[in-house]
Amino acid sequence: MRKSIIVLVVLWFANANAQMIDRCKPGFDTEVMMQVYTELDVYPEIKDEKFTLWDFMEKNFKLPAKEYARNTQVKFAWMVEKDGKATFLKLISPSGDKELEAEATRVVALLPLYSPALCGKVPVPCKVDYEFSMGYKK
How far is the C-alpha of 116 from the C-alpha of 127, rounded, in Å? Predict the structure, then answer.
């Protein structure tokens, strides 16, 4: 009898967890051309409460030494992995700019750890992106 109760409890927890994961199925993201989780129970956050992404980017992102149109939009994406580490994915715009892509890759590598995205209590990878206009960048 006791074994039956333990088995039922384990099965119930497994089913509840599977339903939570099922609720957070990834969808195809056309910007990075891959499956990513978008509907989550908990979104990733930088663990340092004093951290702001805007200030971090202002301090660390250095524009390449070449001419750009004043209002050029820069957008890039990274993945917050299950362990909270940020991994560069793609320079979305302006596409094909190798210098900007290298700088975005460098800056993403400097990001502090995130608390991971969660589906239920299960950590899942999640895409994050950042966008700014060069006209407003100091």
Answer: 11
